[in-house]
Amino acid sequence: xxxxxxxxxxxxxxxxxxxxxxxxxxxxxxxxxxxxxxxxxxxxxxxxxxxxxxxxxxxxxxxxxxxxxxxxxxxxxxxxxxxxxxxxxxxxxxxxxxxxxxxxxxxxxxxxxxxxxxxxxxxxxxxxxxxxxxxxxxxxxxxxxxxxxxxxxxxxxxxxxxxxxxxx
Length: 168
Hints:
Blueprint (H helix, E strand, L loop, with lengths): L1 H12 L4 H11 L3 H11 L8 H17 L3 H21 L4 H11 L12 H15 L7 H13 L5 H8 L2
């Protein structure tokens, strides 16, 4: 009986896999209930986890900002998300998923928050990633498609950059 309870608790608190996190993130963008579910599922992630999982936790914090009304709560979640994401990027600087998270965040937060200093560098790193993995066996085809789709709709990409990306 004890063993079954411990097993149940283990699986209840186990972190979702990468594709599940991506799916949860996508659904949480426009759905407050899904954002709360995503946040609750990832708030157990601590600094000892893989940087990409810390990045997903950061995104859950950012999404809570979008769905809350209280400005103090929103700012608190924003600051937590920013600290988590910057720490994850610092720990794994070459992780394109983390750069993608940061670009998505920095291109969507209000300018008054002054969180926009990495837009150009992250955009260029993501374009380089797309170019490098074009027509090769991609290490992560889902991430490749997500990045490509986002850059094509991003107002920070020039017409020439978008034309180059479309050709990939």
